[in-house]
Design a protein that fits this description.
The protein is 33% helix and 27% strand. It is α+β, with helices and mostly antiparallel strands. The longest helix is centred in the last third of the chain and has 17 residues.
């Protein structure tokens, strides 16, 4: 986990008071449900199958054990309604600039446009990035996520790069 993150972070949304906090093992099922609630993630295999739960639980433990990674959740009225993963990356480029990578941003589908995602992403840029000494926040977004692209652009993110992936065959 990234110790420097200013957590927990309480914030207001159009739905009421929420809190951004570090995920725990007890949040595993809620995070799995958020991933499965997204059609693109579901098409990649995030379907909330009970058979896959051990892999997700292990991944969460590994993320939290890694000092440069963290998995956060948004809690609203006792329910987990959002999640994201952060990775602090030291770099050589840009005179040794550190980057804060944001991945797997999800807000429960029935709560999108509630202000939850905007508040969390503003926190990432205004609080989390400076706390870890990052010179920039970066993220990738699937080309099919045009609504997400507009969301990030409204928050000041610039689509500056073209991303590539290489699928590794696993046994």
């Amino acid at each position: 986990m990234i110790d420097a993150l200013p957590l927990p972070y309480p914030f207001a949304s159009r739905l009421g008071s929420a809190v951004l906090r570090r995920a725990t093992a007890d949040d595993t099922d809620a995070v799995i449900a958020l991933l499965a609630d997204d059609p693109i993630s579901a098409a990649r295999g995030d379907v909330a199958s009970a058979d896959d739960r051990p892999a997700y639980a292990q991944a969460l433990l590994e993320i939290l054990a890694e000092p440069s990674n963290d998995l956060l959740v948004v809690e609203l009225d006792g329910a987990i309604v959002g999640t994201l993963q952060l990775t602090s990356i030291p770099g050589m480029a840009r005179r040794g600039a550190r980057r804060l990578l944001v991945e797997a941003v999800r807000v429960r589908s029935d709560l999108r446009s509630s202000g939850v995602g905007s508040a969390v992403m503003r926190w990432v840029g205004e609080e989390a990035a400076p706390a870890v000494g990052a010179a920039m926040v970066q993220l990738t977004s699937d080309a099919a996520r045009t609504d997400a692209h507009r969301f990030y652009e409204r928050l000041g993110y610039i689509g500056s790069h073209l991303g590539f992936k290489y699928a590794v065959e696993t046994a």
